[in-house]
Amino acid sequence: MVKFHHETVLLNEAVDGLNINPNGIYVDCTLGGGGHSEKILQQLDKGHLYSFDQDQVAIEYNQEHLKKYISAGKVSFIRDNFKNISEALDELDVTSVDGIIYDLGVSSPQFDDASRGFSYQHNARLDMRMDQRNSLDAWQIVNNWPYNKLVKIFFRYGEEKFSKQVARAIENNREKSSIDTTEELVEVIKQGIPAAARRHGGHPAKKVFQALRIAVNDELGALETSLESAIDLIGVNGRICVITFQSLEDRLVKTMFKEKTIIMNLPHNLPVIPPEMQPKYKLVSRKPILPSGEELEENHRSHSAKLRIIQRISN
Q1: What pTM, to 2 d.p., does this model score?
Q2: Confidence label for 307 from pLDDT (cuts 50, 70 and 90)
Q3: Is 53 annotated as a binding residue?
Q4: Is 35 annotated as ligand-binding?
Q5: Which helix (H) or strand (E) holds 312?
Q6: Positive or negative CA dihedral for 243, 246, 249, 252?
Q7: Is 36 annotated as a binding residue?
Q8: With 90 as the cut, is the pLDDT of residue 96 above it?
Q9: Percent of the chain having pLDDT more than 70?
Q10: In the beta sheet, which residues pair with residue 51?
Q11: Confidence of residue 1 (pLDDT cuts 50, 70, 90)
């Protein structure tokens, strides 16, 4: 059996937020270690769960971990990027669902497996692909992308204020020899960040590694595409639960949910709002749901987690 230890964040809060119908159809867009999928399956009677993951390791692990639910015909695994949720479900004649859950970010095994090249704490070839079938990896970005493009992704996806200096350090070093490993990249990043700044705010490579991971996997673009599809897929009373771990993702989810739950461009002094202008969705909670104090103590990866939930209220 493939080893895949992963502590699921906001497990109860997210699944409870779906308000499970035992006979409903649900989608887990981020199967990972199967924590949310298993919790959903435990509550299904005649319902069905479709679980997405682009990582073959996650699929293989859960084929064993959740095999009793496979035997019962309650779960289907789909190896695909969740941005293709509509097309993948349409091929299975699924056009409406009762709930969709997202647990964003990199799973613990991807971080902990040094060979995947996600972590600045393990030395490995620069990779960071969630789907090993994809051609673009972190090595290609670091060694081939132009200075201006590196600055853009480091600032936009990593919010690294020394983006220019880090990009210049990469450019200078790769002219001498390629930057092949995570360890080599960490040393180059340190060259671009002033010594005083390196003494504060965590590991100096954290923001650049985050930016590279997002760029390699087109995480924000995939999330936006997937959420647009998910919002259309859920039926009346259906819900979408999204757990984010970084400000860029949370801001995107918050904005997209807001656009669906308020009346845009409402005419001034309109005495009565006609039914066709009423929002078709509502926020289940105005503020994001955060991990409990107990979870924060037990799982350090939960510290930046936020859960947002939206519900469809009409067609």
Answers
A1: 0.89
A2: very high
A3: yes
A4: yes
A5: strand 306-312
A6: positive
A7: yes
A8: yes
A9: 93
A10: 28, 77
A11: very low
Out of 3.40.190.10, 1.10.720.60, 3.40.50.1820, 3.40.50.150, select the CATH number for domain 11-103+219-312. 3.40.50.150
CATH 3.40.50.150-classified regions of the chain: 11-103+219-312
28 is in an annotated binding site: no
Q: CA-based angle 125:141:115, to the nearest 5?
A: 20
What contacts 24+ positions apart, CB below 8 Å, involve 142-150?
142/170, 142/174, 142/179, 142/185, 142/212, 143/174, 143/178, 143/179, 147/171
Mean pLDDT of the chain: 92
Statement: 116-217 belongs to CATH 2.60.40.10? no
| Residue 105 assigned as binding residue | no
Is 82 labelled a binding residue?
yes
| pLDDT at residue 6, rounded to an integer | 59
Question: Where does CATH 1.10.150.170 sit in the chain?
Answer: 116-217
